[in-house]
């Protein structure tokens, strides 16, 4: 990082008045404080970050005149284990890069801390041991990792044995015989049962991982084929809750849930129950196909099933997590599916859709791939790594935001956006803040601004699968219309008050006609600059004028060279 980059970070801290999730300032005039190592651990275990040593937060992030840069740098290098001493302060120390910078004429030390790779987490303060010295970064704070978070980091590359273990007090009679028969029949004639006599059911069940060599029932078989798995594991269920407002805790109503269901039974039944419960609380839209009408859920049913099935397959089933259900929360503007356990096998949010299938629960995957569904074709999961891309394509086809993942060390949450613009409260808000009819993408981006604290081109592009230039155009139009405001770090929902809930007058066609002539062709951007109208406002207005024959386009609608001229009046008699 160069000096200009450091100055930018300092300016950011001064603007917001505190540290943030990626930047931590500490005075450390002559000696490193003990909490420096907590921050290094937190950055290494989260997303990396930058330490700014020699800045005094209490004095508005002013540089400390007495800062001894050489001494502090030596202490830091030695603490990282690179000083030639008897070892550093940390186990699994991260990669780092120190930079000397000058702020307001006084030198400080900037240290970029890299995130540790999977398999090298957690980074922890050695003398406090792993459970007392492991930290994560949350906002501007360094918080201790929980036991489950540490467990997930330590096992992030290890195939879980939880689904293979034999469950005490469970006998073969605790399994649904019909499901077992269906599973065995699905392997008829396959290599899986090669060499086993057709009548040797016990051998077949051992080969197919239903039972262990000693005859005990495996955990994965109980979950998928058990008559009632919750007898032994009461929290191995899916908790579906439908909330009346966009947040869980609200003072607007004493009603906590509109609908709620604890989905129990074997995994396939749980998935079916969860999907049906969510579906009955979504809106249905009718579309015309051919000569008939087709009813469609606002969020495709196939996406709901894929989301819930993925949570069932990829969740953590090890003992520390067996008291935690999968949760599905339905809000007016979104659906959240939370799965216990972190991402596994080196997967990150950025690589979830790369087509590479990785699953910590290998035995469970083996069963779910082959166990036929009751009364319908297919199985619960395919396990070929295409589920996330499938959901993206389905959501994009409905002009819905792209599925959004958040990954904590011990919890993965998938958010599916709904057609929030259809709800009365949101329609009222959109009508109040916009003085025109917004396009579908503009409506979705406006609603995203109510959900996310800040919008960036990258976030909107990834969620809506739009070209970056199209995203910038939408953001610019919404900013021009006062729906959004542009800040240094992105776009935010405007704080401006709506015009008493009344829509402003629509722009007159004469406003456009006045800046056009039959000879000088102008682009939509040029017309916007001349009229003061946004591009989004102009698009329907220009279309109407073209349809009326009052202006003429110079190129097809998809051409980037499209211009407009005023139509010449017809010659007189």
From TrEMBL:
Domain Schlafen AlbA-2: 20-144
Sequence segments annotated as region (Disordered): 489-509, 548-573
SUPFAM superfamilies: Winged helix' DNA-binding domain
Listed name of the protein: Schlafen AlbA-2 domain-containing protein
Native source species: Brachybacterium huguangmaarense
